[in-house]
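A quick aside before the break. I want you to see a complete sequence-to-structure record at least once, exactly as it would be stored in a machine-readable document. Don't worry about memorizing anything.
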Amino acid sequence: MSDSVGQYLNEIGLVPLLTAIEERELSQIIEKGRDAREAIERGENTAENRRAARAAARAKDRFIRA
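That is the input. The structure line, written in tokens, reads:
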């Protein structure tokens, strides 16, 4: 078990923590993406909405990794 804990601690140290500013920026991107996904579901399948939805997915992934 201690090997697993050590491995976990080593792995979490590889990804830098987010700053407060980065957290706010990512949160805003995620919110815009949520709005864009809702718009797409309503039939507003624009390139801008698709880009915002993809950006939100990347932002969410960054949040999870950090």
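Two observations worth writing down. The chain has a mean pLDDT of 93. Residues 18-65 form one domain. We'll return to this after the break.
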